[in-house]
Structures are given as C-alpha cells and as structure tokens.
C-alpha cells in the first residue's frame, strides 16, 4: 500500500501563490506518474496537472495553464504543485494521485490512478 499526504493548502487572497506538497510513503515504486486533481463543492473532481513516469512530460488544465507548475523529487517520493496568481475559482479541495501502471504519457482521468491522498483545502478570497 501507498499512503499519500497533501499539505500546503490554506486561505489566501486572489493573486497570491501556494505550493502544495504530496508526500508518498509505504510501498512506493521507483517509477510512477503523478497528478493533481481538485473538487469544488457540488462539482465533480477535475484534473489540474499531471506528470508522466520519466518526468519529461507535463499537462495542465486550461484553467491553470500558465499559472501552475507540477514537479517532484523522486528520491524523496514527494510531488509539488506550485500555483500562482490564484483566483477565487481555484477554491477547492486539492488531491494528489499516484499511479504505477504501464502508461508512458500523462494521465488525465481519475480512473488511471491507483492511490489518492485525503486532500488539502485551498480557499481563495476576493
């Protein structure tokens, strides 16, 4: 089993920045892909950003493109999501996800991920 713990969320003002972290522990794998998703009240969980197994490919949702950067420190089994110029509509619970299947590219759907964190709340006020 793999455990994922997100941190770094909080209450910020529009225009601020946040850096979310995702620490993996347990039966971690040497190769994995990661993703960040978010879920606002009354809405479905949606893809935010993802990185593939070799770390050479990233994909961002249009809503965060140009404002966000996904990265990871493989040696520490930790992933990050840097979010800048936050908007009120970025308010949501943010989840990191971890996958170990034989995919080469970035995965954009929740079904392709094997492990999930509990989420961290990000609230952006105007």
Could you name the key traits of this structure?
126 residues, mainly beta, seven-stranded mixed beta sheet, four-stranded antiparallel beta sheet, 50% strand
Account of the protein in words:
The protein is mainly β and 126 residues long. It has strands at 2-7, 10-13, 18-26, 33-39, 46-51, 58-60, 68-73, 78-83, 92-99, 115-116, 120-125. The strands form two sheets. Strands 2, 4, 5, 6, 9, 10 and 11 form a seven-stranded mixed sheet that branches. A four-stranded antiparallel sheet has the order 1-3-8-7, with no helix packed on it. The protein is globular. The termini are far apart.
Beta fraction? over 45%
Order of helices and strands: EEEEEEEEEEE
Which of globular, elongated, flat, extended, rod-shaped describes the shape? globular
Largest sheet descriptor: 7 strands, mixed
- The helix tally amounts to 0
Radius of gyration: 14 Å
Q: Please bin the fraction of helical residues.
A: under 10%
> Terminal Cα separation, in Å?
40 Å
Please report the total strand number as a whole number. 11
Strands, helices and their partners?
Elements: E1 2-7, E2 10-13, E3 18-26, E4 33-39, E5 46-51, E6 58-60, E7 68-73, E8 78-83, E9 92-99, E10 115-116, E11 120-125
Parallel strand pairs: 2-11
Antiparallel strand pairs: 1-3, 3-8, 4-5, 4-9, 5-6, 7-8, 9-10, 9-11
How would you summarize what this structure contains?
The protein is mostly beta strands.
């Amino acid at each position: 089993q793999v455990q994922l713990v997100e941190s770094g969320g909080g209450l910020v003002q529009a225009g601020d920045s946040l850096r979310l972290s995702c620490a993996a522990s347990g039966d971690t794998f040497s190769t994995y892909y990661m993703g960040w998703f978010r879920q606002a009240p009354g809405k479905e969980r949606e893809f935010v950003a993802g990185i593939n197994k070799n770390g050479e490919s990233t994909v961002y949702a249009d809503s965060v493109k140009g404002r966000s950067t996904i990265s990871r420190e493989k040696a520490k089994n930790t992933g990050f999501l840097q979010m800048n110029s936050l908007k009120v509509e970025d308010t949501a619970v943010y989840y990191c996800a971890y996958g170990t299947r034989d995919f080469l590219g970035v995965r954009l759907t929740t079904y392709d991920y094997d492990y999930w964190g509990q989420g961290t709340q990000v609230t952006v006020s105007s």
